[in-house]
Amino acid sequence: FxxxxxxxxxxxxxxxLIVGHSYYFTRQVDIDLPAVEMPLLREGExxxxxxxxxxxxxxxxxxxxxxxxxxxxxxxxxxxxxxxGNSFPIIAYNGHIGYGVDQQFRGRHYAxxxxxxxxxxxxxxxxxxxxxxxxxxxYPSRRTIESLGARLxxxxxxxxxSEAYLHGEYEKCxxxxxx
Length: 179
Hints:
The protein is of the alpha+beta class. The protein is 29% helix and 32% strand. The chain is globular. It starts with a helix and ends with a strand.
């Protein structure tokens, strides 16, 4: 499976992601986000407010995350996360960006605009491409991702032990966005 999902990775990249992960489970090692200057994350009335920076944890295969609130006129309208770095679950089916817009604020392109605002931060963290995923039947999210210029690479079946699978999601559309 990983050869199909990670064809651009060399063997040196795959070893810590696949073979070495049992080693990671024996150690509690936190990975903090690099110190980068936070760009202004605002477009018109939309602003992304940093809620927290969560360090990664190798033992749990978690990578560092920036968590933001989408804010319009002082009101929270949704949330968006930027996951910085690569792990098998991120590249294969979780994606580098996750977002949600509150029901009453949907249809105003807040998700697409927020994703665009995160691109300079991704570049500042050394990322040159991002993986973004959506459920196959979530057409609004898929249109959002496509509006960013991301390319649909494939639709994959989720591993039965993944958190999403355990919550009733069985497939993901995988999009790649060049930053």
